[in-house]
Amino acid sequence: MIPGTRVRPQAAADAEEIFAYLGKQSVPVARRFMEAAADTLIAIRDDPTLGIRWHNRSGRLTQLRWKRVQGFKKYLIFYRMDEDVVVVQRILHGARNIEQLLDADD
Q1: 81-100 tens-digit pLDDT
Q2: How far apart are CA 27 and CA 42, in angstroms?
Q3: Cα 21–33–100 angle (5° rounding)?
Q4: How many helices (H) does the chain have, and how many strands (E)?
Q5: Whole-model pTM?
Q6: Which CATH number fits domain 4-105: 2.40.50.730, 3.90.650.10, 3.40.50.12160, 3.30.2310.20?
Q7: DSSP letters of 63-84?
Q8: CA 26, 42, 102, 84: dihedral to nearest 10 degrees?
């Protein structure tokens, strides 16, 4: 059985911010990012084990996994399984302080 997907508000806001940022340089690239993010989310939904388990210094948030956005290797989708639903927590650029941002959401 393929699980459903729920995108948390902060993850949706992340995607909008990334789209706006990329769109300042190139609207076609920004559109390609959104399509690639959607394709990556479909792949995660179809097989939630695709992502790599998140390991942070504090040992918290061990239920999280991450996967690179297809074709945009610096952008990462963080998600977890909640029963039969994939919950998308955040979509972040790899250069950001990911641990701090994820801890703030918890």
Answers
A1: 888 899 999 999 876 767 76
A2: 23
A3: 60
A4: 3, 5
A5: 0.86
A6: 3.30.2310.20
A7: T-EEEEETTEEEEEEEEEEETT
A8: 160
